[in-house]
Write a structure and sequence with these properties.
Elements: H1 11-24, H2 37-44, H3 48-60, E1 64-67, E2 71-74, H4 77-82, E3 89-94, H5 100-116, E4 119-124, H6 134-146, E5 151-154, H7 163-171, E6 176-179, E7 189-193, H8 195-208, E8 214-217, H9 224-239, H10 246-249, H11 259-270, E9 278-281, H12 284-296, E10 306-309, E11 322-327, H13 330-345, E12 354-357, E13 360-363, E14 373-374, E15 377-378
Parallel strand pairs: 3-4, 3-5, 5-6, 6-7, 7-12, 8-9, 9-10, 10-11
Antiparallel strand pairs: 1-2, 11-13, 14-15
């Protein structure tokens, strides 16, 4: 195929024209399996995005049909007549939309949907609060099933909920990709960041800065991302020969606890014989609460206690209070998840794939300024 075949048309348009002509010549019988996106990539030397876009358009035009769990087929004549030409829809089910992390993640999903011609239905299972609700997730999953979506991108709630509904999604052959964390009880595609590296690298940075007693403070606890971060934190302590102190490394919620509970936890740690000099916080929400609580207890940040943030979910501007923080590739995470989903929809049949994206680390030394929390003020 050369660039002169169809003038200056986009590459996927030229591929579509060749495929349409091949069907017209009878090279593919009605009802027979059609060429897969992987085969298109190899045949034309194009990217997955270009191949998926060409196939999606031919499905929307009614020339091809997708059969869940089986792949893409040449449409029978009756199917072509009945085809509406409407683009396929995918569901994006997340929680915590007000935060930068989730908003950017959704933006990544949406950008690929627009690029590939999908419509996106968005559901937030947390709404106005930080905590996601298993019940809201269940309703969003059921609505996606009832709406006959082509696939689902899911940022799952904490814990192992809605197993029956997720099983129904898989029984119906609806492609499913998890983002930010994975489920150990369900084999699915997933796109995550290197959470072990987050815990490890931030801890190493704090140790290099002279901190040997580091308090870990969490939000969610029953998720793989948090468990992997704690593992990385503990590994960094062990490599430096520092003791693993259960009172400092306990995996317990902090961010959404009542203020009295948070203050009591902090006061107990600060009153110990060897109080922590740094706090490794789950996210921006926890950073904000810890800074406020430390000031309430008469301490200063960073004077008495240094803060580190394990991701930028939450009030991003308050991460200026941290000496070091991880920067999540949120937009890339959403875009990658949607591309995996599109490949599944287009007929890729290999087993569950986990994609792990690298993270950046933001240090105070690399910024033009930082915040201090002193005596009830943030400056």
């Amino acid at each position: 195929m050369t660039g002169d075949d169809h003038g200056g048309a986009p590459l996927y348009q030229r591929i579509k024209a060749e495929l349409r002509a091949a069907v017209g010549r009878g090279e593919y019988e009605p009802g027979s399996p059609f060429v897969t996106q992987r085969e298109l990539c190899e045949r034309y030397g194009v990217s997955t995005t270009t191949a998926v876009k060409a196939l999606n358009d031919l499905v929307a035009e009614g020339l091809l049909v997708r059969r869940r769990g089986r792949g893409t087929f040449v449409a029978e004549q009756a199917e072509r007549t009945a085809g509406s030409g409407a683009p396929s829809a995918v569901a994006c089910i997340v929680h915590g939309l007000p935060g930068a992390h989730v908003s950017n993640l959704v933006s990544g999903v949406e950008s690929v949907c627009s690029e590939l011609g999908y419509r996106m239905y968005l559901a937030d299972t947390a709404r106005r609060d930080v905590h996601a609700s298993p019940g809201r997730e269940a309703r969003a999953l059921q609505e996606a099933i009832d709406s006959d979506v082509a696939g689902i991108v899911l940022y799952p709630v904490e814990g192992q909920h809605n197993m029956e509904l997720l099983g129904e999604v898989q029984r119906r052959g609806i492609p499913l990709v998890l983002v930010d964390r994975y489920r150990t009880d369900i084999p699915t595609d997933a796109v995550v960041v290197d959470n072990f590296a987050i815990g490890y690298q931030l801890t190493r940075h704090l140790i290099d800065a002279g901190h040997e007693r580091i308090l870990t403070l969490w939000s969610e606890t029953k998720v793989t991302s948090v468990q992997d971060r704690l593992t990385g934190h503990v590994q960094a302590l062990r490599e430096r020969g520092l003791p693993i102190i259960p009172a400092l490394t306990a995996l317990r919620p902090y961010g959404e606890q009542p203020e009295s509970v948070r203050l009591a936890l902090l006061q107990s740690a600060l009153d110990s014989a060897e109080p922590p000099t740094a706090a490794l916080c789950a996210n921006g929400y926890v950073v904000a609460n810890v800074a406020k609580d430390l000031v309430s207890l008469g301490r200063t940040v960073p004077g008495d206690v240094e803060l580190a943030g394990m991701d930028d979910a939450g009030p991003f501007d308050l991460l200026g209070l941290t000496t070091v923080a991880a920067e999540l590739p949120s937009n890339e995470m959403g875009a990658t998840a949607m591309r995996l989903l599109a490949e599944r929809i287009a007929g890729t049949t290999d087993g569950p794939r986990h994609v792990t994206l690298p993270t950046g680390v933001h240090t105070r030394d690399a910024t033009s300024g930082y915040l201090r929390a002193v005596g009830g003020e943030t400056t």
